[in-house]
Specification:
By secondary structure, this protein is an all-alpha fold. Helix content is about 75%, strand content about 0%.
């Protein structure tokens, strides 16, 4: 990181991302709540580890986005790692929904299915939990699985794009160590500039002082000549 780039850094700490405004985070909130209701409605209350696994995967996807965004203030490396954990968790949840459809011989909605396009449009244009809540107790297991699969795939795609953006930021701006170094370089550069300004001011004052001395000498000589005559 050069001195020029150091001048662009106003603070060692990065501005924290407001994760609540991230569309993929909002969709993970939906996924978590929907998964919780899905497991309660359609999976055994006891003796099935899938319940805990699905709920934990859904929660991990959501929480690691939050933790990663918070950690990104001081460590983009940690932010990228946690975002990747979130993606992995969402993909685990995706596989669980797939497995449920296969094991229960349900229909996987794809292009050409009568409800596929409407479901896709709804999931694309709705991110908030309130948009989905009224359906959680009404949808069948097939409906919930297909919506869950669609949301998981959307979240994964959005997060891949977001991660690439963060990777570019990391390459161009560096981590906390680079930013600390840049801040120090910036401070030293400012100090040198201030010293140079002071040197120029002193040099200018010295020149003015010499000019005034010269004027005083001239005036003194004129006074002396006038007194003689």
């Amino acid at each position: 990181m050069s001195v020029d780039s150091a001048k662009k850094i106003d603070s060692i700490l990065r501005k924290q991302t407001n994760w609540k405004n991230l569309w993929f985070y909002q969709k993970t909130v939906v996924l978590y709540q929907m998964t919780y209701v899905f497991t309660r409605r359609f999976l055994p209350a006891f003796g099935d580890r899938t319940v805990d696994q699905m709920v934990q995967s859904a929660r991990s996807g959501k929480q690691n986005i939050v933790e990663g965004s918070a950690d990104g203030v001081t460590s983009m490396e940690m932010e990228l790692k946690l975002l990747n954990v979130a993606r992995s968790s969402v993909n685990e949840l995706l596989e669980d929904f797939y497995d449920y459809i296969i094991s229960h011989r349900l229909n996987k909605w794809m292009s050409g299915h009568s409800r596929y396009d409407d479901m896709l449009t709804f999931c694309r244009t709705h991110n908030k939990l309130d948009d989905y809540l009224r359906f959680f107790e009404k949808w069948t297991d097939e409906e919930m699985c297909n919506v869950g699969i669609t949301l998981c795939r959307m979240v994964d795609k959005m997060m891949m794009t977001y991660q690439k953006k963060k990777e570019t930021e990391f390459i161009t701006e560096g981590g906390i160590r680079e930013r600390m170094t840049a801040a120090r370089l910036n401070y030293r550069t400012n100090q040198r500039e201030e010293l140079e300004q002071c040197r120029q001011i002193i040099e200018h004052l010295q020149q003015e002082n010499e000019a005034l001395k010269s004027e005083i000498r001239k005036l003194t000589m004129l006074i002396d000549k006038s007194q003689i005559h």
